[in-house]
Each structure stands twice: as C-alpha cells, then as structure tokens.
Design brief:
Mean pLDDT: 76
Order of helices and strands: HHHEEHEHEEEHHHHEHHEHHHE
Number of helices: 14
Structural class: alpha+beta
Oligomer: single chain
Number of domains: 3
Strand order of the largest sheet: 3-7-4-5-6
Low-confidence stretches: 1-86, 97-103
Strand content: 5-15%
Largest sheet: 5 strands, antiparallel
Helix content: 25-40%
Radius of gyration: 24 Å
Length: 352
Amino acid sequence: MSVAAQATVSAAGFLDTDFGELAQDIEHAVLHLQSPVPAAVELDASVRYASIEDAISSIAPEDADHALIDFDDSQVEDRARRSRPVPIPSTEEIARAAVQVEPPQLDDIGREPTMAGDFATTAPITLLYRLTTGRATGLLSVQVGGIKKEIYVRGGVAEYVTSNMAGELLGNYLVSRGALSPGELAMALAMMPHYGGKLGDTLVGLGLLKPLEVFRHLTYQVRQKLIDVCTWTKGAFAWYDGAENTRTAFPLDLNSFEVLGAGAMAMRDDTIAHWMIERAASTVVRVRARPAIELERFEIAGLPTLFTKIDGEKTVGQLITDSLDPTAQRRTARMLILLEQCEMVRTATIAL
C-alpha cells in the first residue's frame, strides 16, 4: 500500500471514530484547512535567514535555486517514507519569508456591535458561557491594551480565532511546540504562494505534517487562545450577532465547557489570591438546586463534589480551608470562581 493510501486509511479510521457522519467528507476538508493566519501574512515568520542553514546546508550555493531536498528524518515523523523530494524555493523567496513583518490586520465589521462591555464588569468566562449555552452565532471581538483577538462562534462553539499577536500565528506556534524547526517554517512560508497562500495546505503539500496533525494542532492552538482570554481581568468586548466568518474554516473538535474550565484553572495566582481575600467571609449559595449543565462537561476532577458541599451556609473561606495544602486551596478557589462566573453559584456577605 502506498504512503498516501496508508495515510488515507489511518485518517479514515480516526474520523469514523470521532466524527460519525462527517467521516466521508472530512479528509477532503482537512486537506483544505486554512490556518488562522490570513494569506496577507504569508511572510509573517519571526525567523532569521540564518535559521534556514540547517535545511539547505548540504546543497551547494550554485545549485540552491534549483536543487531538490528531503528534510532531516530526526525532526519530522515518517520523513523517511516520503515518496518525492521537495523543491527548494529561490534564495530571494527564502529571504523574504524570513523577514519579520506585522501580525495580520483584524476584521472591520462595518457596523455597531449588538452588545459591548467591559471585562471588569462581565468576566470573559461569563460572556463565553452565555454564548455557549445560548448556542450563539456571530463574532466576539476582545481587546486588552494593544492585544486584540476575534473569535468567530457558530452554534456556541468557536470555529475560528485570530489575533494580532505575532506569537499566536500558526507558524510560530508550531515552532514553539516542536512540530516544525525554524528552517522548515521558513521553507513553508516561502512556498505558500504555490499552495494558495494557506500555511496548512503548504505543510501538508510539502510532507512536513499530515492532514490530521494540522487539524489537531489547529484545534489545540484555538483552545489556547481562548484559555488566554478566559484569564483576562480587564479589557473590553464587542459582540456582533450573526456575523459570519468569511475565511475558510472547519468545525473544530472543541468542548467549549472544557475550555472554560481550563481557563479558570489557568488564572494567575495573584488573581486567585485577591479573590480569596475579597470573598473569604462571603457565603456561597447555589443559584439553583441542580447545575444548569452536567458539571462533568468541564472535565475538572472534584468539581461535582465541590458543588455538593455548597449548602448555602458555608463561606468561601470554609470551603477553601477544607484542605491545608495551599495549592489545593487555590485549586478549590479556581473551581469556585468557575462556578460563580458560569452563574451556577453566587457569593454574598451576610449582614449581622
């Protein structure tokens, strides 16, 4: 069986297991994934020209513009099984790809938001929870300082997230995760014009990553961008109800509630300490006897048990000090914050 056939069979098996009726169409869709980096930023790599040396060091300078190369087998899975070499781009193309440029410009919606607010008043987790449970579709634009992100949501699930932070571009992310070397990224960026300006297609076309590897990395990267937003304690947001994402996107394998849980668990220690001090004497009360959704969906061990301990009499301090371990106390505080920001419990100081 050829390498391509083996990859197709492997992908089909995975997809049949995880995506049911989409299995027949997903392989084609994944092959056409577009990274969350618009084509306009195809030269976005924070990679210096010198970083490409390890990819082309074996090629004589006079032959570099026309040579064929296979990549280092030690850096990318299954490189030895590739059936054909990759054409080297010209020196000029590589040099252009290795130049640092500005991150992408984000969308101009051209209309007033349906809803806008401040994260000091409405926490990011609260906002995202409402969009998720309301199965909303539209664009959420968030900003803190000079950082801006745009989150396209469909049916309550994020399908596309872009950012003006260079570190959150897909190529830089793949290098940071060790999925690509800097030289491989520079090579892929130089070749992007030959693959429709799409980094995902380029990586697959060059044999650097398999389609499902691109899909998994893309899903995980979107998750990380959302988790980062969940930890914000200030900033502003704007919601554009019904706004459609015009870029090529594909439904990601995201559990929105797990993302919110991970966001709460990723909050900074100083944020948690401030909340614990401020709420220590506040009584924790359930908003309703049963949670609005199954707490297991947040995928946080101990969260359902904690909810059962909330009896309307215990204070935040009492619930937290069930454990003497400071790390466990902060973990309990994070879970209480999650329950509070998802509007399942409220905290109130009882007047004596």
